Write the structure tokens for this entry.
Amino acid sequence: MRAKTLLFEQFALVGKGLAHPARLQLLDLLAQSEYAVEPLAAAAGLPLSTASAHLKTLRASQLVTSRREGTRIVYSLAGDDVAALLANVREVASSRVAGVEPAKHAYLRLVDDEATEDDPAWEEIGHDELLRRARQGQVAVLDVRPAPEYEAGHIPGAVHIPVDELEARIDELPDIEVVAYCRGEYCVMSYDAVRLLTRRGRRAVRLAAGMLEWRLAGRPVQTTAA
């Protein structure tokens, strides 16, 4: 029994790494791109000391790796299996935990299901439909994530305009329908982009889910030199 307990203690290390909302946020960001500690903490809205403590736990759980670049410590996910684990945790929580749906609606600022026509951000298309329309030149694909995440990997041919620059740069988009995407299913940036584009008279929809799910589905990914 002692040997069995020791084995299950090793499994529990992974659970410990996942057992805090801040650590899940850090994994969500690292699923997009590697990050140095300071910009990672800023992106997660955490004090530097707090982010460092959570990263230490994630590293002890073998969910992230780190390396030194000069004076910086750069963190990455330990592997694609960790990204898949993050997606599976979300999926199980969504189907089992009653509080997920109202929390999702509050965060993404979604209206009730009965009034979806009032919120253009509800409309979305799937991966296959996006690829079909893009090959036929029917849509412009828009990545609204921060630059480091776009450079680390994006949908081939996607135009990059961070969501906080979109209003000022909207004229850079071709005059066709826009499909916006961001980090994943629970990322608010693509919702905000579609709402903004629609207010400006542009036809826009969201890509179902986002870059995390696109990668995990084995879809093509393009990188850009920094």
Remarks:
- The longest helix spans residues 2-18.
- The chain is about 50% helix and 15% strand.
- Residues 116-216 form a domain with the Oxidized Rhodanese; domain 1 fold (CATH 3.40.250.10).
- The chain has two domains: 2-81, 116-216.
